[in-house]
Amino acid sequence: MDAKKVPLEPLMVDTATAARALGLSRSAFYEGLSSGRIGPAGVFFNSKRLFPLGELRAWVNAGCPPRRLWLAEQITQDVKQHAGAR
């Protein structure tokens, strides 16, 4: 009996998909990236910018703070997580 293929949700999406997921046009998304209004900056992989879906969701759940606040929150969480691991 063959195992049924389970559809996998991508872990990372390209810029166009990230914009669509947020309900933005690509130009509005690029404007937000350029101005720092969009928190997640994405990562470059093979010269392609990708956005982790988990980070996009977390950013939206946090109220869509601008990048400087988003990054500060991420650093604070990392410090707390590492301090608790000791």
Low-confidence stretches: none
Secondary structure class reads alpha+beta
Mean pLDDT figure: 90
Number of strands: 3
Total of domains:
1
Give the overall shape, derived from the CA principal axes. globular
Strand content: 5-15%
Helix fraction by DSSP (H/I, runs of at least 4): 40-55%
Radius of gyration: 16 Å
Distance between the termini: 47 Å
Read across the widest sheet, the strand sequence of neighbours is 1-3-2
Treating each run of at least 4 consecutive H or I residues as one helix, how many helices? 4
User: What's the SSE pattern?
Assistant: EHHEEHH
Main sheet summary = 3 strands, antiparallel
Structure overview:
The chain has 86 residues and is α+β, with helices and mostly antiparallel strands. It has one domain (12-84). Helices cover 51% and strands 13% of the residues. The protein has four helices and three strands, in the order E-H-H-E-E-H-H. The chain has helices at 15-21, 26-35, 53-61, 67-84; strands at 12-14, 43-45, 48-52. The protein has a three-stranded antiparallel sheet with strand order 1-3-2. Helix 1 crosses helix 2 (26-35). The radius of gyration is 16 Å and the shape is globular.
